[in-house]
C-alpha cells in the first residue's frame, strides 16, 4: 500500500514537515479528497471522473485494465433495470523488484427509474456503468463514508412516461393483489372507477397502475370509507 512520504527536503522550511498518510490512517480519506479539484466534486461528493484521474497518484500504482460487464440489460419485463459490474486491475509501484503483485477490485450497480435522477433515467446502462466504476474506485481507495457524486440521487419520478416503462409490471400486480385481498377490494372495480379503459389488465400503462396503487394505499388509511361499489375481492383479476 502507499507509504508515508515526507516532503522533499529542498522544499521544506525548518518548521515544516509534511507527511502523507497511509491508506490505513484515519486521515487517508481527507487526503484523497484533497487531491481533487473543486469541479471534481458535487456537493462534497467526488465524481467518478475525478477519482479516476487521481487514482494512480493516490495509490502509487499503474492501472493495467479497466473493464465493464453488463450483467442485466434493461427490458420491459425487468422495469428497464440495468446491472453492470466494473473491474479495475492495477499494479502497485512500491512492490519490491522481483515481485509481480497485481491487484483487482470490482464494483456493481443496478439502475432503474426508481433509483435514478429523472434526467438520466432513459440511459440506465450508462448510469449503472458509471456508478459501478465509482464504487470500484472507492473500494480500491478505501474511502470511508463517501459516495461518488453519481450515486447520489436527487430527483426521481413516480409517474413514468410511455418512453420508459410502458406497461404494468409483475411487481405492481403482486403489490396490488396483496393490498386488495387484505382490504377485500375488487381491483377491476377500482380500475373502472379510476377511468382506465384498457381491454386487458396486462395492457394497463405503468403510470395508470401507479394510480391504482395510490387509490388502494389511500383506502388503507380509511378502511371505513371504502365504497360498496369496489368491495369484494376477486381472484385472478390480473388474468382479465
What do you see in this structure?
The protein has 240 residues and is an alpha+beta fold. The protein has two domains: 9-151, 2-Layer Sandwich (Double Stranded RNA Binding Domain); 170-239, no CATH class. Helices cover 31% and strands 15% of the residues. It has helices at residues 28-34, 48-59, 124-141, 170-183, 187-194, 206-221, and strands at residues 41-42, 45-46, 61-72, 82-92, 103-111. A three-stranded antiparallel sheet has the order 3-4-5. Strand 1 (41-42) and strand 2 form a beta hairpin. Helix 5 packs across helix 6. The longest helix has 18 residues, at 124-141. The model is unreliable at 5-9 and 158-164 (pLDDT under 50).
Q: What is this entry, summarized?
A:
With 240 residues, the chain is α+β, with helices and mostly antiparallel strands. Helices cover 31% and strands 15% of the residues.
Category from helices, strands and their pairing: alpha+beta
The overall average pLDDT, rounded, is: 83
Report strand order across the widest sheet. Answer: 3-4-5
Number of distinct beta strands = 5
Count of helical regions:
6
Q: Into which percentage range does the β-strand content fall?
A: 15-25%
CATH class of the largest domain: Alpha Beta
Model regions low in confidence, pLDDT < 50 over at least 5 residues: 5-9, 158-164
Can you tell me the CATH topology of the largest domain?
Double Stranded RNA Binding Domain
Give the C-alpha Rg. 26 Å
Could you say what the CATH architecture of the largest domain is?
2-Layer Sandwich
Instruction: Report the order of strands and helices.
Output: HEEHEEEHHHH
Helix percent reads: 25-40%
**Major sheet size, sense and barrel closure:** 3 strands, antiparallel
